[in-house]
Write a structure and sequence with these properties.
Keywords: Membrane, Transmembrane, Transmembrane helix. The protein has four helices and no strands. It is rod-shaped. The longest helix has about 90 residues, at about 25-115. It has one domain. The protein is mainly alpha-helical.
Length: about 140
């Protein structure tokens, strides 16, 4: 290429080119296309964000469900312990009664060896056996 061909006159740039100036209708069409693209991108981002939030909340609900199941199991254990504690006074009462009855049986046995009358000794031994049978379990 010759150097003269490389030089471009400034007159060509100074002339307004009417075919290059976009019309108002073209500008409106391009603007509406750009707005459509932005709204489409915004809608996709919103759907993506909604999906992420859904799965995150679903995961949180699953964790809470497991925690509630664990707590209900612990509550069941506590209920069993409370029922056991409610029965404790009855158990201790039976133990005290059993100890008193055994003490009375031992005293009757001792008295049967100390009395002179064999008839009284037999009745004391019979009372001892009755006391042993009356012992709570």
């Amino acid at each position: 290429m010759k150097p003269e061909e490389k030089v471009v006159s400034m007159d060509e740039f100074r002339k307004p080119k009417e075919n290059e100036v976009p019309s108002l209708a073209e500008l409106n069409a391009k603007t509406s296309q750009d707005i459509s693209r932005m709204s489409l991108i915004l809608a996709l981002v919103a759907v993506l964000l909604a999906g992420v939030l859904f799965f995150k909340s679903n995961q949180s609900v699953n964790v809470l469900t497991k925690d509630v199941a664990g707590i209900s199991a612990k509550v069941g254990v506590m209920d069993a312990r409370m029922a056991e504690l409610e029965n404790l006074p009855a158990k201790s009462k039976r133990m005290v009664m059993g100890t008193l009855i055994m003490e009375m049986a031992q005293k009757a046995s001792y008295l049967s060896t100390q009395v002179d009358n064999p008839e009284q000794a037999a009745k004391l031994l019979q009372a001892m056996e009755l006391l042993q049978q009356a012992k709570p379990e």
